[in-house]
Amino acid sequence: MSTSIDKDILSGIEAHLESAYPNEACGFLLGTQVQKKRDITHLIKVDNQSSENQRRRFVIDPLDYLKAERFATKEGLTLLGIYHSHPDHPAIPSVHDLEFAQPFFSYFIHTISEGKMTDTRSYRLLDGKFIEEKFTSNQYPLPSHNSQLTPHD
Ligand code: ZN
Asked: pLDDT tens digit string along 25-83?
């Protein structure tokens, strides 16, 4: 499996997540998948529906899933994943992320550190666990890993 994400999509994610800081924000990733080659070319921003704690949780309304699926069908795209931010926390999936994860999707997690995107990683669910997936982008350099933050709960 190879995954690539368009630089304009990464820029769009960055702008969205930085503007939502210090809250968590999220959205859908869409594109095409031909055999084992996955190309992310579109994003859909989603309102964070969490009423609990928007700094540490994100919740996507089922209606937003439906709208994203409809958009994908209309545009001949596939819903390929979800992106979300970890404000001031490492780009490592939380227990909550694992609980709501589903197979097939790429989960892009982005550290927003003091309002700036400093890390981007992607994960896939395999046998009930997240494994980090490598991805490429036509944008260089990618935000570098920041290991100074303490893990998300
Ligand atoms: Zn998370």
From this structure: 999 999 999 999 999 999 999 977 666 666 666 778 889 999 999 999 999 999 999 99
Q: What is the CATH number of the domain that holds 44?
A: 3.40.140.10
The Å distance, Cα 100 to ligand 1 centre, comes to 10
Q: 66 exposed, middle or buried (CB, 10 Å; 0-12, 13-18, 19+)?
A: exposed
User: How many angstroms does the Cα of residue 27 sit away from the middle of ligand 1?
Assistant: 12
C-alpha 99 to ligand 1 mean position (Å): 10
Do the domain assignments include residue 146? no
Measured in Å, residue 127 CA sits from the centre of ligand 1 at: 19
Identify whether 129 is part of a domain.
yes
Expressed as residue numbers, the domain containing 73 is 2-139
Q: How many domains does the chain have?
A: 1
3-state helix, strand, coil in the chain (%, to 5): 20, 40, 40
**100-110 per-position pLDDT tens digit:** 898 999 999 99
Cα-to-centroid distance, 39 and ligand 1 (Å): 22
